[in-house]
Design a protein that fits this description.
about 400 residues, mainly alpha, 14 helices, about 0% strand
Length: about 400
């Protein structure tokens, strides 16, 4: 059973409800992702153990993404979102228990919490994105919707870590996890603003989910998306290394990374107002070329101000891409399989976030952050030829 194309609610405030729903789940996961490694370090675990803990947040969505996507295709919005709320809530309760258990048992509970939180936040994201995409009537409206929705992760990555950080400093880890338990309730209450739609009968589908990759242009789009998502990873990884090599303080490096996030948010706020003037393919191709140029310039930036300028430009190029790719993805796939298509995108991103930092770590040790910037920048710039119109 699946929703029809008109399934998402068009009542008042439905888009705000979707954004609030994603913030509730993602901010809770982001807060746990910041606090769990700190708790493990407090218990005396090694950086390798902390790295394993962080990898589990991204590894679980890789395994469960297709199941989550099919669940959204069959049942629409409410059932998958309620399951996602349950998973994230269970993760926070396990983290709360880990604070009392301590030792090996506590670390094991944190690992399980990481997997549940990653899986729940990803299931909610896929369902919310699918619902948002089905609400659009044309390309420009789809770009507007995904631009507004794209603000949610940036906002969540500030709200969750900042809130739990203050709570931990004031009253300890248990209080921080208890505070995070309020966030899934935001998703639960916002879901009431999304209309329940009776699923439409769907003809039996033969084959497997992997058959969807045969859709013309889909594999090429997913590869473009992977190249661009790798740029996010390398920026987060290499900027601290580059700043450390030049003797910049932690606050200066943090400001550079924060400037990038603000730039991403600003461009996604701007896009809805000019969406009718934008062509998805042109924007993606220009963004890939622009990202290549910025990555070439980053190691040459000789001051924090210059690095901040590069961060602003990179935020513009990478921030503009996601709404365009999401819009194109919905054009390339049938409505009753949007959830599966989004799952393939999610699998690629999360697999990259799990594996690529290990690759970057090995490469950065051998060749340094500058060569890493140049290599990835060259790859994404050269890959811009793949950003062609569907069927092109």
């Amino acid at each position: 059973m699946a929703e029809t194309a008109a399934a998402p609610a068009h009542g008042r405030g439905w888009l705000a409800a979707l954004i609030a729903g994603q913030v509730g789940l993602h901010a809770a996961m982001a807060g746990l992702r910041m606090a769990a490694p700190l708790q493990a370090l407090r218990e005396g675990y090694s950086p390798w153990a902390v790295g394993l803990l962080l990898a589990l947040f991204a590894a679980a969505p890789v395994v469960l993404a297709l199941h989550s996507g099919r669940l959204a295709d069959r049942h629409g919005y409410h059932r998958p979102v309620h399951i996602a709320i349950g998973l994230v809530t269970a993760a926070l309760l396990l983290a709360l228990a880990a604070d009392f258990a301590g030792g090996t048992a506590g670390f094991g509970l944190l690992c399980l919490a990481a997997m549940l939180a990653g899986a729940g936040a990803n299931m909610g994201m896929l369902t919310i994105q699918r619902t948002a995409g089905l609400a659009a009537h044309d390309g420009p409206q789809r770009v507007r919707i995904f631009s507004w929705l794209g603000i949610a992760p940036s906002f969540s990555n500030v709200v969750g870590p900042v809130a739990i950080g203050f709570a931990i400093d004031l009253a300890g880890f248990a209080a921080g996890y208890a505070l995070m338990l309020l966030l899934p309730l935001v998703t639960l209450f916002s879901a009431r603003r999304v209309e329940r739609v009776v699923p439409a009968a769907q003809a039996p589908r033969h084959g497997t989910s992997w058959d969807l990759l045969d859709a013309p242009g889909l594999k090429r789009l997913l590869l473009v998306n992977w190249l661009l998502s790798m740029c996010w990873d390398v920026h987060s990884f290499a900027v601290p290394i580059l700043g450390h090599e030049r003797g910049y303080s932690a606050s200066t490096i943090g400001l550079v990374l924060g400037t990038f996030t603000l730039s991403v948010t600003a461009v996604r706020v701007l896009i809805p107002w000019i969406a009718h003037r934008l062509d998805e393919t042109t924007v993606v191709r220009a963004a890939m070329l622009g990202t290549g140029v910025v990555f070439a310039a980053y190691p040459l930036a000789s001051s924090p101000w210059a690095m901040g300028g590069c961060a602003v430009l990179l935020g513009v190029t990478l921030g503009a891409v996601q709404p365009m790719i999401m819009s194109t993805l919905h054009q390339l796939t049938p409505a009753h399989r949007h959830g599966e298509a989004l799952a393939f995108r999610s699998m690629a991103i999360n697999a990259s976030s799990t594996v690529m930092p290990l690759v970057f770590g090995a490469a950065g040790t051998v060749v340094g952050a500058a060569v890493l910037f140049w290599a990835v920048g060259g790859a994404v710039g050269a890959g811009s030829w793949m950003a062609r119109r569907p069927g092109g």
